[in-house]
Amino acid sequence: MSIAVIYGGTRPNGNSEKLTELVIQDIATEKIYLRDFNIQPIIDMRHSEDGFQERNDDYNSIIDRILPHDILIFSTPIYWYSMSGTMKNFIDRWSQTLRDPKYPGFKSKMASKKAFVIAVGGDAPYIKGLPMIQQFQYIFDFIGMEFAGYILGNGNKPEEVLQDKVALFAATQMRNQLIENI
Amino acid sequence: MSIAVIYGGTRPNGNSEKLTELVIQDIATEKIYLRDFNIQPIIDMRHSEDGFQERNDDYNSIIDRILPHDILIFSTPIYWYSMSGTMKNFIDRWSQTLRDPKYPGFKSKMASKKAFVIAVGGDAPYIKGLPMIQQFQYIFDFIGMEFAGYILGNGNKPEEVLQDKVALFAATQMRNQLIENI
Amino acid sequence: MSIAVIYGGTRPNGNSEKLTELVIQDIATEKIYLRDFNIQPIIDMRHSEDGFQERNDDYNSIIDRILPHDILIFSTPIYWYSMSGTMKNFIDRWSQTLRDPKYPGFKSKMASKKAFVIAVGGDAPYIKGLPMIQQFQYIFDFIGMEFAGYILGNGNKPEEVLQDKVALFAATQMRNQLIENI
Amino acid sequence: MSIAVIYGGTRPNGNSEKLTELVIQDIATEKIYLRDFNIQPIIDMRHSEDGFQERNDDYNSIIDRILPHDILIFSTPIYWYSMSGTMKNFIDRWSQTLRDPKYPGFKSKMASKKAFVIAVGGDAPYIKGLPMIQQFQYIFDFIGMEFAGYILGNGNKPEEVLQDKVALFAATQMRNQLIENI
User: Fold this and answer.
1) Å from C46 to nearest chain D CA?
2) D32: DSSP letter
3) Looking at residue C146, which CATH number applies to its domain?
4) What range does the domain containing D86 cover?
5) Complex ipTM value
6) Do B166 and C173 touch (CB under 8 A)?
7) What are the chain A neighbours of D134 within 8 Å (beta carbons)?
8) Which helix (H) or strand (E) is D167 found in, with range?
9) Which pLDDT band holds residue B131 (cuts at 50, 70, 90)?
10) How much is the pTM?
11) Does D95 touch chain C (CB under 8 A)?
12) Rg (CA), chain B
């Protein structure tokens, strides 16, 4: 089994990345930093005669990179109690890919994957991050992916998540879970 | 009291817009269609020495337009069980404005406003839209705004929300609430 | 199709009952006021050799009354942001009935029903009642029932819910939905 | 600082109790097993001329036992995606105590305490237990208590929670937190 990590953070070495590094260190992964790419918001053309139009951005190249993998890790800072807008735009575009003849079987391919979420926030993430977890559950349910686990970490200042002992332990456990799956 | 409407939809005359039109028809409002503007994702520079950098996009011009108003209506389709990525990027940027010397008192200015949410989705919005409502509550709590009401409507195909009688009635009630407030 | 209404309120003519009456007036229903019965808390004996023991209370008689019906309406005041403890004890006992040889096929019988929820609370029920709705969804999912609709009403003092125009309209709509189903 | 533990489970040595024991072992605590007491459901008399009536059960004796403590641990199995009906009935009765002249200052006394929650369930508690956590947050917010932490554990069969390594580690951390507070 192979792993792709989709990073939604906008700050290199931010807390969500740091925590994710602990999970995947020394494990081969495909790392995708969404901030390095141009991902346009979806333009909803589901009901237009011509259907969705090419956005001519980097979105498809990211889909091409994640599709071969069996496990997807969504790593995002908690901005305003949800995933980053960057990651949200990436997921919004799935609606387009679901109807894109260049990606036949997109849903069933996604449905064969397992998903993990790693999210770090600074304002009571263990409580105020819960709606985001529920949304990820709905997202994975829709696309048919198994939601195999998540970690909510607490951190605001650089590297602060490294003080969150429960999150660090959960990272170790998720790491073991990944190693068993590979 | 004056009203600004912030539209997060990407399809002109989409269901969330249609429902919003019923709420505000014949009421003077400042209408902001986020899809018509270039809003870059936030780059988190809170912990950098230099602080946030100008993004040179249209974001500040939108802030300039909403600040004079007393009531903000957030109108968004439900994409993947949350607000559109376009609207999320707009809100994410508030973190920058909160630290922007060009916008002194941003938080207290926002805190004097009332917020309404109008959201339409096609996959059981009355259940699966609830985490999004909880997130808006957290967002408004943080910034200090009163969350004065919301409508969740059901609709997928064009104009389908106009069949959702409870949503239409709630629109009438929200409209009355706005008229009383003006 | 026939309808049973399960009332969790402890005050006769409380707000949740009032709102429910608007939904079902002039429709034949089996009305079950849980407060009139002795319903003991479950004693979890799933893992005991002897299994669950008879509690010798009124619980089974209520199950006998709801099983023949096609539609169940759960009508409860929101106490402390959830259904009343009385109603919770009633639902907790389903775990016993699921293993009770006197009720073969309990799950599949329940799974053929449709469920509605009517709940009234006095502290921002449109927001703070949402976790309860999510729990009802999980409950109905587990037992296999369709969650056909819900109303959250606002009311604290006697009859106050009759001022909640959106709830009243939603009651009319739920009523129409029931009439179409009968 | 002193600690009271309120157990909502109905099975001696159930998973939620087991996990709680790990948190409090060798720490002096007042242990209250709700199943050993007769706690009647609330009868809502807020709007009656005569007010609430004595229920002549064991409820007040439990309030007497928790009031002297600084920290309250709510330990409950997750039944049907929420706290046990037994624990819910106990909390529902707070509405009566808030108006009981025999308990002047009940709210402010409760508001000076810290609350912890330990809950174990067998059906995806990390996801489906989240609405319950949100409800505890609302409960503690209302009464003014600090929500100092929670653990969600996974377990169905006896002692199964002892296989949930993240929950066990979180128990160790909560234990340390308690020791620092004493």
Assistant:
1) 9
2) E
3) 3.40.50.360
4) 3-181
5) 0.96
6) yes
7) 127, 130
8) helix D165-181
9) very high
10) 0.94
11) yes
12) 16
